[in-house]
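The following record pairs a protein chain with its ligand, zinc ion.
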Amino acid sequence: MKTKSGDFVLPGDALGVTEEFVPADWTYEDEGKIRSLVAGTVSVDNKNKRISIIPKTSYPSVLKNGMVVFGQISEVRGQRALMKIERAKDTDRGLTTSFSGGIHISQADKGYVSKLTDEFRIGDLVEAKVTKVIGLDNVDLTTAENELGVIKAMCTNCRHFMKQLSKNEAICPNCGRKEKRKLSSNYGG
Ligand SMILES: [Zn+2]
């Protein structure tokens, strides 16, 4: 498993090991191995120990580290909220593939979070930042910045969207229920 610059690879092909190289553009890490996300040409940067891929065709709307995305919370488990990513910020077009993102409890807010259900609930619309591309359709996300987090909270009682009440609380205009959330500073925008 030794690839060199100029080699043509397909999605999933092993390129190197993470002990030796850092996975860069269009690659992902899989149990210590670096694999290609796309069909393309390998580019090895031996000085900085980075392996990246130059895609054969352009994939303009595929997610990368640092991108801000919008989506809807589909599940909130003990330590992890799952989000269906609908689009990337600053682009009009939707994503060509459907991506799912995970927000670990440690990445939900700046401070300590004891209950993830005080941060997100199913149906909430969320703005989040990609921290890691895990596979072809899966990324890790963070909302631990002021402008990231819930931009529309869905009432768990009646499914109406809620109004912001305070920094981390929203109120339902339909049933009057108050609920906690990790609200974005752009709430409702
Ligand atoms: Zn309600």
